[in-house]
UniProtKB/TrEMBL annotation:
PANTHER family: O-FUCOSYLTRANSFERASE 30 (PTHR36050). Keywords: Membrane, Transmembrane, Transmembrane helix. CDD domains: O-FucT_like (cd11296). It comes from Umbelopsis vinacea. This is O-fucosyltransferase family protein.
Length: 425
């Protein structure tokens, strides 16, 4: 029976060839993967032709990171340095850390893994970790704010936040880098007017009237005197941290805030559909109720009373179970299940028709179809959960009247969105 035996041989050879090919492919993948991660091409010293750089380390939730980016953009512009822009972190990310630990933390959070490349290959998407869920994902800021590039402030986006990698990218040696070593979350603040006019005794009262203690006062001139090609800061968080006393500085900050409104066609499309159901742009009322953090829970009851009062005043016409009155109401919140939350119960008792993002769940899956999904690192099977706070803010930002939570940076950002969106419509 030679015929079947030939077939067996033939099949055997095909099988062996397949195994060999697969092994080579896997090996090749592995090699390109690790090359991408670990080997920096040996580069000749780059002549930056006078271009200098400013870098910083992000931390804390997205609204705080956006405040950090705003401060860093102002500083880069004041110092005429190209800003090294880290990615935006969605989901859970740690807060400020002492003793330079933030460098290490950021490096670990953003270091590319060989399997990330494989996940972009649709056929391999079922592969191990590509299916796992992570607590955070990074995207380039341009994904959230597409007009950031129009600011005219030179920027270079990085995905892997690593001092070593930055040194290699810019071909800088250690003595060409000025590193700021923070000793506290609020180590320094920058005064943007001439030295002699800067506050001397109590540099802790700021334009918003709030007091905050920074350890040191810096002046633009001090920073300009630093000649090194790279100034690497650590934390830059704080609402009044980078002064805007000069008129052109205040104008620049307004421009930056405008550019840092959410702009992304896919996110806008989903938002627009929700807004349509709420009666249209600037045709509904909104409040933001922050739950997640203990810091916000204690005064919550009082805030909610104030917010109900605000809604009653802003509302015209009587409310009942099918209508809030003339305006619909949208509640932006991080409450896990808003309608079952005892804290939120007074809102829904008074305004049973008030809406939350969960009421528009069926509109969210279209976020997954965007090509932007491939920008998420680590790769995600689903990006919807990460974008819920973004959409929530975008919807609330289109309200006619809005009342947030006084100590939440997320609320502050919705107020900024509101003014930008009103201007642009
Ligand atoms: C800003 O830096 C660039 C180099 O990146 C230089 O060409 C330019 O002259 C500088 N501008 C000022 C006002 O110093
Ligand atoms: C609720 O209010 C709307 C508008 O004010 C009105 O058209 C509707 O009849 C009211 N429904 C009830 C049950 O009172």
């Amino acid at each position: 029976m030679s015929y079947p035996s030939n077939t067996v041989h033939y099949l055997l050879m095909v099988a062996i060839a397949t195994i060999v090919l697969c092994t080579i492919t896997a090996f090749h993948w592995n090699v390109t993967g690790s090359t991408y991660v670990y080997n920096y091409a040996p580069a000749k010293k780059i002549d930056h032709q006078g271009e200098k750089f400013l870098a910083y380390l992000p931390h804390s939730g997205l609204s705080n990171q956006r405040n950090e980016l705003e401060n860093a953009l102002l500083l880069a512009s004041y110092l005429n340095r190209t800003l090294i822009v880290p990615p935006a972190f969605l989901g859970h990310i740690g807060g400020w850390q002492s003793n330079d630990h933030l460098f290490e933390y950021m490096d670990i959070m953003t270091r590319p893994r060989p399997w990330w490349n494989r996940c972009k290959d649709k056929l391999a998407l079922a592969d191990g970790p590509c299916h796992s869920k992570s607590r955070y994902a990074t995207v380039p800021w341009e994904y959230l704010h597409s007009s950031i590039g129009e600011l005219g402030i030179p920027m270079r986006s990085i995905r892997h936040v690593s001092l070593d990698k930055l040194k290699a990218m810019l071909t800088l040696s250690d003595d060409e880098i000025h590193i700021q070593h923070d000793t506290s979350l609020y180590t320094w603040f920058l005064c943007d007017i001439p030295h002699e006019e800067c506050p001397t005794l109590d540099p802790t009262v700021f334009e918003t009237g709030r007091r905050r203690t920074y350890d040191e006062q810096w002046n633009i001139e001090d920073l300009r005197a630093i000649e090194k090609p790279l100034i690497h800061l650590q934390g830059v968080f704080g609402t009044d941290r980078v002064g805007v006393h000069q008129k052109q500085h205040l104008e620049l900050r307004n421009k930056i805030r405008e550019a840092l409104a959410y702009r992304n066609p896919t996110l806008e499309e989903v938002t627009d559909k929700i807004i349509e159901q709420l009666g249209g742009k600037h045709q509904f009322l909104s409040i933001h109720v922050r739950m997640g953090n203990r810091q916000f829970l204690k005064p919550l009851h009082k805030h909610i009373e104030e917010q109900i009062e605000f809604l009653e005043k802003a509302q015209r016409g009587p409310g009942n179970s099918t209508s809030c009155g003339d305006f619909q109401i949208y509640v932006a919140t991080d409450a896990h299940d808003p309608r079952k939350s005892p804290e939120l119960a007074p809102v829904f008792e008074r305004f049973p028709c008030a809406k939350v993002l969960g009421d528009y769940k069926d509109l969210l899956p279209s976020l997954e179809s965007d090509t932007g999904v491939t920008l998420f690192q680590p790769p995600q099977q689903s990006i919807v959960d990460f974008l819920i706070p973004v959409i929530d803010a975008m919807v609330a930002g289109h309200a006619k009247d809005f009342m947030g939570n006084p100590s939440s940076t997320y609320s502050t950002y919705i107020e900024q969105l509101q003014s930008v969106y009103k201007l642009s419509s």
